[in-house]
Amino acid sequence: MHYHAHETAIVDEGAEIGAGTRIWHWVHVCGGARIGTDCSFGQGCFVGNRVAIGSNVKVQNNVSIYDGVTLEDDVFCGPHMVFTNVYNPRSAVPRKDQLRLTHVRRGATLGANCTIVCGITIGEHAFIGAGAVVNKDVPPYALMVGVPARQIGWMSEHGEQLDLPLTGSGRASCPATGQSYALQAGKVVQGETAYGD
Fold it and tell me: What are phi and psi of 13, to 5 degrees?
């Protein structure tokens, strides 16, 4: 087996799991799941059938990834964070044919205990703070906090807050790496080309 699964884990037949992925205690991976290389699933996680997960994704303890969720490469899911897949659930009303798709782009961080309401896209390298409730699309590099979540800044790919205004234009460097960023037309762009050099 090219991946590691703890003896208490349940991996259903048919699941596609990449090399180097680690599946820890009491995790259940359904048979239709597609998981990339070098991922990690902490204790008590669940991965549904209609789920696609890229490579180097870290899923901390007690996270359920339900049908209709896509996680691109390098996504971080903090402990106890929540995905939904039906917008208006009722126990007495079957709505399995009304799933709303959720897409988390490359490098995004979903903080501990945050909730991602279904049917939205989280942009590349966005950072969702602990406990936030996100109910609309999030731009790349955005820092979101609160209930409902609101943007309070921008984050670098390294996970450091950038000294940029929320709107307009500006330039900044990551405090940790020195990597260059610019805010242009309401969007953050990374790299020297962002400065028009």
Answer: -60, 135
Question: What does pTM read for this prediction?
Answer: 0.95
- How many CA within 13 A on the CB side of residue 123? 18
Integer Cα distance of 146 and 128 in angstroms:
9
∠ CA 19-20-22 to the nearest 5 degrees?
Answer: 120
How far is residue 14 from each of residues 34, 49, 132, 133, measured CA to CA in Å? Answer: 9, 10, 34, 33
Q: Each residue of 76-103: pLDDT tens digit?
A: 999 999 999 999 999 999 998 999 999 9
58: phi then psi, degrees, rounded to nearest 5: -110, 120
Which token pair is 106?
Answer: 């490359």
Q: Are strands 187-190 and 180-184 parallel, antiparallel or unpaired?
A: antiparallel
The C-alpha angle 43, 33, 135, rounded to 5 degrees, equals 75
- In terms of Cβ atoms closer than 10 Å to its own Cβ (0-12, 13-18, 19+), residue 50 is middle
Are the beta carbons of 56 and 90 closer than 8 angstroms? no
At residue 175, φ and ψ (nearest 5 deg) are -60, -25
